């Protein structure tokens, strides 16, 4: 094990890091406008053998390879328990957990026997209970019973979580008598509230299996565009077998998307949504104490659920935001928690971009992410997403007046990413604007979805920086020229964002960005051809991914009048 010296930026680019005495940044970072971050990087070497010189001058090699006949000492199993405030509370939780484990094994055995009998007899509609995940009553699952769909408030998860965080205790007025106030202790501790020893596998309800399959095939890849490990497409479905908060979130978002895709009435998603609320609401009393990457992943999925509403930017999940600001200690783990945090940041950007509100997220937490040390396409895209988040915070700040110095610093940081990005971020093909066969938004083909996300956020950064340039505010002879130059930059990059979306095929993430920037900057489109092409693009998005764009079209037409 050895300690590497130098800043992260120089190590990533394999450059010698030279820092002048008394300077806070190295020479390379000053020249390129990069953020100079010095931190300890530990490198581990795999050791398969050692040499021992204790027996004379001739060293003896001792290998760590063991024979198949090697005898190993048995060690007792380790049980991890949530932190208790007192020793008495810990003892009580352990006793309850032991009783629940014993009863759970008996119920699981009986459930498997019942499943075997059903597989022999064959499943028929008369033997399947549509409202139950396991096909029958389950005493262990009682805390997760659903609220009746007609008791779910029309405002969705937002109204319930907002009431919860505002300190209002009259949740029964919004949800109905079927959703009583539940304390975290009713779930036998944090771990038991999230993890259920009784697996839902295999799903014995055809409709729920259809929902689950739809998520794996279509919705999971929506959010994994910058994640090479595909956590939401692979890891989340596996965890959903034992985590009701994940399984019900998957069912809710899939049921809603299928109903929107087929233009049918959504009668099932509210049931699964209410089950998630029964788990989330009591746990959000102490988001730090119950911090868990499964909760963050569930909130990301539920955010997809709410994005399918026409007014999705108003349904921001405050509970998810509070959790996200507390997950800095597991962001470097490069697991589901880190993947969920980057997706949640992109979702928060959607809201900020369309509402003009700054991000209420501590962006410094992300500096510990492995995306700042890896060289894959997804990591480079995440870095550009992070820079764009800083640009939005600058543009939408409410208390401070934007300064030219800060604007220039962000502008240089955006350009530095564009200069340093790998060669494979260059487009495979770009259509020519003005060609007879091309539309006002020529398609741009990239080699992977992550490349498209990175380039889109670069173009979005240029647009937002152009709209927030402090030089346009000052009065003078150069003000008009500065405004015309800004409009030229906005239109050029707006075409790039939409072109990347058109060239990406059917990748929803790129379509979301294009729709939201049209909502924010569509008023800059002046020609009739541009406006018609923008409306046609929005209609195409709704047809392909079932994300409603009628509200954006109506707002644009009102602005164009």
Automatic annotation (TrEMBL):
Residues 98-120 have a biased composition (Basic and acidic residues). One of its GO terms (cellular component) is nucleus. Residues 93-136 are annotated as: Disordered. It comes from the Eukaryota. Its main location: nucleus. The keyword Nucleus applies. Keywords: Nucleus. One of its GO terms (molecular function) is zinc ion binding. PROSITE patterns: ZN2_CY6_FUNGAL_1. The keyword Nucleus applies. Residues 6-36 form the Zn(2)-C6 fungal-type domain. One of its GO terms (biological process) is positive regulation of transcription by RNA polymerase II. This is Zn(2)-C6 fungal-type domain-containing protein. The lineage of its organism: Eukaryota, Fungi, Dikarya, Ascomycota, Pezizomycotina.
């Amino acid at each position: 094990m050895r300690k590497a010296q130098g800043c992260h930026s120089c190590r990533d680019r394999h450059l010698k890091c030279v820092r002048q005495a008394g300077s806070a940044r190295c020479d390379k970072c000053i020249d390129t406008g990069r953020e100079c971050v010095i931190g300890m990087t530990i490198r581990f070497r795999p050791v398969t053998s050692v040499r021992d010189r204790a027996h004379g001058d001739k060293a003896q090699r001792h290998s760590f390879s063991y024979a198949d006949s090697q005898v190993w000492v048995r060690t007792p199993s380790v049980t991890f328990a949530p932190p208790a405030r007192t020793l008495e509370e810990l003892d009580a939780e352990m006793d309850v957990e032991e009783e629940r484990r014993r009863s759970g094994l008996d119920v699981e055995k009986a459930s498997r026997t019942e499943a075997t009998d059903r597989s022999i007899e064959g499943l028929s509609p008369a033997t399947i209970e549509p409202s139950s995940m396991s096909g029958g009553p389950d005493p262990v699952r009682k805390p997760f019973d659903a609220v009746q769909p007609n008791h779910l408030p029309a405002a969705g998860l937002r109204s319930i979580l907002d009431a919860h965080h505002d300190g209002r205790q009259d949740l029964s007025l919004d949800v109905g008598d079927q959703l009583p106030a539940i304390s975290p202790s009713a779930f036998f501790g944090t771990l038991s509230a999230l993890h259920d020893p009784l697996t839902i596998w295999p799903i014995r309800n055809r409709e729920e299996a259809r929902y689950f399959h739809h998520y794996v095939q279509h919705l999971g890849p929506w959010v994994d565009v910058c994640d090479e490990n595909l956590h939401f497409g692979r890891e989340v479905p596996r965890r959903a077998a034992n985590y009701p908060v994940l399984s019900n979130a998957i069912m809710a978002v899939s049921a809603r998307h299928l109903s929107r895709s087929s233009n049918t009435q959504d009668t099932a998603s509210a049931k699964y949504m209410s089950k998630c609320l029964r788990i989330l609401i009591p746990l959000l009393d102490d988001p730090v104490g119950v911090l868990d990457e499964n909760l963050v992943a569930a909130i990301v999925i539920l955010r997809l659920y709410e994005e399918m509403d026409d007014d999705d930017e108003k349904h921001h999940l405050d509970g998810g935001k509070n959790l996200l600001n507390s997950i800095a200690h597991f962001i470097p783990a490069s697991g589901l928690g880190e993947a969920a945090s980057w997706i949640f940041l992109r979702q928060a950007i959607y809201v900020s971009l369309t509402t003009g509100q700054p991000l209420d997220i501590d962006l410094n937490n992300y500096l510990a992410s492995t995306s700042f040390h890896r060289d894959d396409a997804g990591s480079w895209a995440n870095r550009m997403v992070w820079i764009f988040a800083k640009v939005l915070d600058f543009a939408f700040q409410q208390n401070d007046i934007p300064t030219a110095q800060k604007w220039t610093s962000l502008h240089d940081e955006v350009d530095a990413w564009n200069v340093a990005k790998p060669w494979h971020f260059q487009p495979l093909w770009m259509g020519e604007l003005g060609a007879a066969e091309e539309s006002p938004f020529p398609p741009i083909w990239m080699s992977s979805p992550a490349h498209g996300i990175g380039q889109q956020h670069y173009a979005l950064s240029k647009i937002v920086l152009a709209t927030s340039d402090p030089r346009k505010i000052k009065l003078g002879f150069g003000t008009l020229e500065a405004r015309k130059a800004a409009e030229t930059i906005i239109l050029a990059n707006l075409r790039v964002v939409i072109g990347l979306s058109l060239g990406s095929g059917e990748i929803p993430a790129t379509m979301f960005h294009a729709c939201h920037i049209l909502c924010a900057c569509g008023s800059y489109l002046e020609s009739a051809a541009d406006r018609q092409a923008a409306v046609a693009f929005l209609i195409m998005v709704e047809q392909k991914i079932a994300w409603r764009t009628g509200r954006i079209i109506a707002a644009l037409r009102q602005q164009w009048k």
